[in-house]
Amino acid sequence: MFRSQNEFVSGLLNLAGCMIIQLAYGYYYTIGNMGTYITAYLSHNNKTVTQNDMVVLTSVIISFEALAMPLGGLLHRRFPLRAVIAVSCILHSGSVALTYFSINCNFTAVVVTYGVMQGFGFGLGYALLISIAASWFPNRRSLVVGLVVGAFAAGSFVFTPIQTAYINPWNMQADNVTRTFKDPMLLHRIPSAFLISAAVLAGMEVIGFLLLCEKHVYEITGFSVSESTWSEANEVPSKMNNECAENAVMSNKEMTPLEALQTADFYILWASVCCVLVPQTMLSSLSKFFGLEYIRDDSFLAGITMASSVCNAVGRVIWGLLGDYLSFKVPLCCLLLVWTILLVTFPHLSEFEGSHLKGVYALWVCLMFFCLSGVFVFTPLASNALYGSRNMTINFGLVYSAFIVGGILAAVLTRVPQLHGQTFTQFIIGGMFCCAAFVLCLWLKDPKYPNRLKKLDVFFWFREYISIRCFHWSLGRCFRQCS
């Protein structure tokens, strides 16, 4: 795997650099915490801003991340890795710094700096860092990918305590009526918090940038490495599960984007990802707002944000290792089913009181983020299993475009007058979309499905039956026309 000890050390240093930059990119997950402060500050300055506007802000970040991700892969073909990552980091940390000025203007200005620039910034480098790290450890690809994306998910764990300790060190409570912060000293600290966060982000990204080192032996395209490297990466799980390995060999077909678009699985996967983005956007944006309605303890809610970040990070590693044994379909369907139940029951936690309310709120939020983490692991795994690794960047970029539609759909739903400010109803709707994603995923074909599980998959056999019937019908119609 490694020709020398120096090469092994270089791989470790590169992995550390990728994880540090991804940790900085994970600042995005503080939107749930900072959203309450941004809403309070703009409302104090006579700007008409509500908690639903934070859903719009989250949707913008996700949408521009999806737009920038394939662009980062294309830029890497023309420019050195460090050049693309440098632009990504400058845009990312610069977007947070510029929000110091935009928050004193209006919400639209905040959307441009904190939404458009931030999403586009970390979107450029997100996929590149994953593939660069994986190229150094082809035999441990799932673990490395889990570590890198886990670092991204842990961003909230690092930055939430910094934000809360600086903005609200006295644990001031939100207003009883508006559920927003009114304390003048607290509000005064909010703009400068963006400068402090930007400085920390820039420092982390500089350190990570200095540790980056591209391994030129392997062809790197987005999430994937060369075909030979991917074969090595599958060596370990194949030893663990011979059935998965046999199916992997049988389905080792590399599809172009045009061929992928001609398959039914692409549209099923795209639609399921689109549905998942609705509850994901609401969870990231509104979970703390919902907590503020019944729990008047900002320090406690900030602690829950940190705990959910840990669950999000650790979950990605666990789901990634589980994918080596069961491929993507079984665990993805299971987590979507559990997530649906959690989303539908989450608004009913208001029936509890006191310490019981805090306990079940913490448990539900952590479990929902644990389920959410699996989506970002199994979606690229599904794309690779269905369409191969050679055109992984473009194929997954096409699937990832569902994030744009899903984010916009979530923003539109929160703008419906009947749902305005109704977090109870919004989480129920999020659960319904998650349930729709679960039903869609049942119909996905998993080429690396273990044979023993495939025999029990009623939806797979029913789909195959429909496919055969449609083929016979088309063949018979063709013969009739010829005769």
TrEMBL record:
It is a multi-pass membrane protein. InterPro entries: MFS (IPR011701), MFS_Riboflavin_Transporter (IPR052983), MFS_trans_sf (IPR036259). GO terms for cellular component: membrane. The keyword Transmembrane helix applies. It holds the Pfam family MFS_1. Keywords: Membrane, Transmembrane, Transmembrane helix, Transport. The keyword Lipoprotein does not apply. GO terms for molecular function: transmembrane transporter activity. The chain crosses the membrane at residues 12-31, 54-76, 83-103, 115-137, 144-166, 186-212, 260-279, 299-318, 330-349, 361-382, 394-412, 424-444. It is found in: Membrane. This is Major facilitator superfamily (MFS) profile domain-containing protein.
